[in-house]
Sequence to fold (202 residues):
Amino acid sequence: MLQEDPNEAVLPDFTSDEYQPARQQLVQDGLDDGQAAHTLASLWTLENNAAKERWALRQQRLENLKQQQEQEEEDCLQLAKDEEEAARLEERKKYKNKYAPVKHMKIPSDPSIIPAAYAIRKLKAGEFCELHYFTNRGLDDTKEAVAVTEPDVLMLLPESNGSHTWIPAATVKDPKAAAVTKDENLSWEQFLEAVPRMITMM
Fold:
């Protein structure tokens, strides 16, 4: 097997004393000293050309093997990457809430407006709801009611289809709650307090 590149080999000087024994053998076959040196140079060149061809073939095989290994490594990396991406997509699909995008929003500086649960239930149901629940007074009444209401208490109420449903007591109007001011009896100040808040909740 070739260990050195034959393309870098240098033609020896076959006329030197070092190659006298080789020339002598050819001289014995009828050649003169000059012809013997020329013959040795020709033989060396033929052998060197053959070695160059073997070297080129060997280098091409090594290059092909290297490219094949690199391609196999690249395919393995791509396969692992595809499997990882598929697993990530499957996890995102399975746990949508975990990967839900978080919106970058400013921290609200306005106080939260939370009307009575009873009023919110009526709005969601599309029923008439008095503006009183969205005035300053109505919101204050709600704060007091929330402070004393048991959060786990349920009440059984009839529905329009005749069946009954358990609902949180906080969503039902308390008969002992403060009197509700009718819309027509609200002052302009109370009206201006309530309307924007109700529109926001709708």
In short: The mean pLDDT is 80. Helices lie at 20-28, 33-94, 117-124, 136-148, 188-201. Strands lie at 154-158, 164-168. Residues 70 and 89 are 28 Å apart (CA to CA).
